[in-house]
Amino acid sequence: IERTLSIIKPDATKRNLTGKINAKFEEAGLRIVAQKRIQLTMEQAGKFYEVHKERPFYGELCEFMASEPVVVQVLEGEGAIAKNREVMGATNPAEADEGTIRKEYALSVGENSVHGSDAPETAAEEISFFFSGLEIVG
Ligand code: GTP
Ligand code: MG
Questions:
Q1: Averaged pLDDT, 27-33
Q2: Is 115 a catalytic residue?
Q3: Where are the transmembrane segments (predicted)?
Q4: Predicted-complex ipTM score
Q5: Which of 48, 107, 109, when mutated, tests ligand 1's pocket best, judged by the most ligand atoms within 8 Å of its CB?
Q6: Helix (H), strand (E), coil (C) string for 30-53
Q7: Could you give the CA distance from residue 138 to residue 126 in angstroms, rounded to a whole number?
Q8: Of all atoms in ligand 1, which is nearest to the CA of residue 116?
Q9: Residue 114: which H helix or E strand, with range?
Q10: pLDDT tens, 104-124?
Q11: For 45-102, where are the E strands, in sequence order?
């Protein structure tokens, strides 16, 4: 059984969409096995998104992620990484499929409501960035 790291981003927590987004995950068969609401510092956001530090939008992305609380969570299920990315939809909401979270809720390519790990190695790293083993209850 696979696990992935999900983040409900500031644009979504601000608009009170946590429950609606969680419903999408649960309807897709993903189980929320850990979850907490936190406010990232600029430093933490910068570290989390370090892989993007050469991209032109890095500063904007970090400021956005630290601007309001986020909900970080571990989702579990068969093929959880791919399934989560399917439920999220394309990064740019204009390209996201009907019924996906980003199609329904994202505001722009930057303020796109959710993050999901993209591979097993990054999922493991991202989960341990936010959670200790004791906080994950499968
Ligand atoms: P994540 O699940 O958040 O990693 O999204 P992704 O894998 O679909 O996209 P990617 O890893 O390429 O980019 C990470 C995040 O950077 C995106 O989710 C966006 O929030 C942000 N981002 C990507 N491209 C742009 C852009 O052109 N402008 C801005 N402002 N933000 C961007
Ligand atoms: Mg990514």
A1: 98
A2: yes
A3: none
A4: 0.92
A5: 109
A6: CEEEEEEEECCCHHHHHHHCHHHC
A7: 17
A8: 2
A9: strand 114-116
A10: 999 999 999 999 999 999 999
A11: 70-77
